[in-house]
Amino acid sequence: MNAPPDDLVRAVEATLFAATEPLTAAAISAHLGGAVVEPALAALAEHYAGRGIELVVRGERWHFQTAPDLAHLLRRDREEVRRLSRAATEVLAIVAYHEPVSRAEIESIRGVQTARGTLDVLLEAGWVRAVGRREVPGRPVIYATTPAFLSHFGLQSRRDLPGIDELRAAGLLDPVDVALLAALETGPDGTATGNTQENALD
Amino acid sequence: MNAPPDDLVRAVEATLFAATEPLTAAAISAHLGGAVVEPALAALAEHYAGRGIELVVRGERWHFQTAPDLAHLLRRDREEVRRLSRAATEVLAIVAYHEPVSRAEIESIRGVQTARGTLDVLLEAGWVRAVGRREVPGRPVIYATTPAFLSHFGLQSRRDLPGIDELRAAGLLDPVDVALLAALETGPDGTATGNTQENALD
Amino acid sequence: MPLPADSPPGSPPDDEAALVLSLDGWEGPLDLLLDLARRQKVDLRRISILALVDQYLDHIERARALRLELAADYLVMAAWLAYLKSGLLLPREAQEEPSPEELALRLQLRLQRLAAMREAAARLLARDRLGRDVFPRGNPEGLAVDRHQQWTCDWFDLVQAYGQVKARTAPVVHMVRDRMVMTLETALARVSAMLGVSLDWVELRDLLPDQPDPQLRRSALASSFVAALELARLGKAELAQAEPFGPLRLRGVPG
């Protein structure tokens, strides 16, 4: 449909295509036995204008590149929906009920060390963010939930989170612990559980 | 000078250009949001025909490469292509023309044991791979060629293997036992048996 | 490596130096046979097997005369070819299976197949090869796939996780509820006191306290039974039972 390119143009085209780095006109010329390559470069640049590939010169070095407006096509996004791990769910719950909390506080509530990545997942999900530092020795970073957290869980505010009594009434607690909790509740020194939770939500 | 390509053609062109390895039409389509890319591929192949770069399909995978007639300009100091031993070349040909084949079948054609390393060279080059086991006693591993083999040797498919049709028509791809039966059945007139006998007894 | 096709036309393999050289080049007896067959300058389908056998045996003889070390498979092939030759030449009374002609044909077919693959390999290598004759793009940008994790979790899991954390980490307190039981000591005292009152047989059931609580009744029965056994062992009481699972009666032994 268009006139076939002459041999020099073809040679320059192939040389630039196969090159591992941008080439100066002099380097291309040396490669092609000293031919005058500038007209061929101009012809190629014109030929490729508007195509998916273009021939550009940067600092006197020529190279092919994909057209800038197509850059988005060369990066493909893929969304992968993943369930939050058990550990991450616990940490998120602790942040939600106790915020703002430091990492050390989260660990003391969970009773286990929290892997670095667990908190990172929540930060990445956009449900938790750092909100400052606690003014205690070591000035630990403290974390709180975000508006994105509320909207993901369909909560108007953190006050919508059920208290521990409601959890039990709703049967949301592990059955094996029911007797234990009952015992604690009737225990002599008040209900530590209940207090913590109330304070946290105050 | 020529009509500007439409956006899909440009996108396919850029995708193939940026890809580090040959792509199937399906892979290109997946990259471009499921578009039907075959017409664009055909348009591109036609557009590039006769240029210094061409669009080729090898084993259903498409890629751009320099035009073969420009080899002398580009070869220069690029003799990095693997030099194959005679044994490796023969084994490769046998796998390609007879696939899938077991090691024992390769050896029966060559009349010699094949050193372990010979097959390893081909496996390492990515031209041959194990494709399963033959369901006969001993369950030998069987080998076949790969898409990389087709692209390296510039073959669209195994049907393009040089002379494969003639070899098949002449029965030269059949096992000796099969060929022997065929030759014995066709009797003395004009067959190998008759000739051999006559010549042998001259 | 000497290629068979390069041999001068019609050169008989009588040059000993060439022979020594060429023996290094063979990849095995079939390879040598194929080279010899090609020297016949005819289509492989029309080669003379007898001539081929003679040439091969001649080669082997010369190699032996030069005390070249020959791999065993060359000698095995030589023996087999000598047998084949005699089979082809000698008159036969009975038809052997397989016939020498069939063996010769088989050899010929094998040579054809090896030759075909050798030629195919050469044609394959002569193609425009990627990286030697044609080149892919030197510096492709590459296509990237950005993976985004979309995390999901629901209200139920969140709330349940919190409940379980609290339950798991609450201090563990173990409490045993007080249960109404009759201890063995109490039963012993009761039973022996009641046996001292009467010397007649009484049923164990009648000795039990009048108790509405079923748990306490069961406990009293068990303890009183053990108390009766203990008193019998000490010789302070006698036990009697008319039939299995019948009423257990007991009587005090005076003294």
From TrEMBL, chains A, B:
InterPro entries assigned to the protein according to its UniProt record, in alphabetical order: ScpB_csome_segregation, WH-like_DNA-bd_sf, WH_DNA-bd_sf
Species this chain originates from: Novosphingobium piscinae
UniProt keyword terms in alphabetical order: Cell cycle, Cell division, Chromosome partition, Cytoplasm
Presence of keyword Phosphoprotein: no
Biological processes, Gene Ontology terms: cell division; chromosome separation
Superkingdom of the organism of origin: Bacteria
Gene3D superfamilies cross-referenced by the UniProt entry: Winged helix-like DNA-binding domain superfamily/Winged helix DNA-binding domain
Protein name: SMC-Scp complex subunit ScpB
Automatic annotation (TrEMBL), chain C:
Gene3D superfamilies: 6.10.250.2410
Pfam families reported for this sequence: SMC_ScpA
Stated name of the protein: Segregation and condensation protein A
Protein source organism: Novosphingobium piscinae
Source taxonomy: Bacteria, Pseudomonadati, Pseudomonadota, Alphaproteobacteria, Sphingomonadales
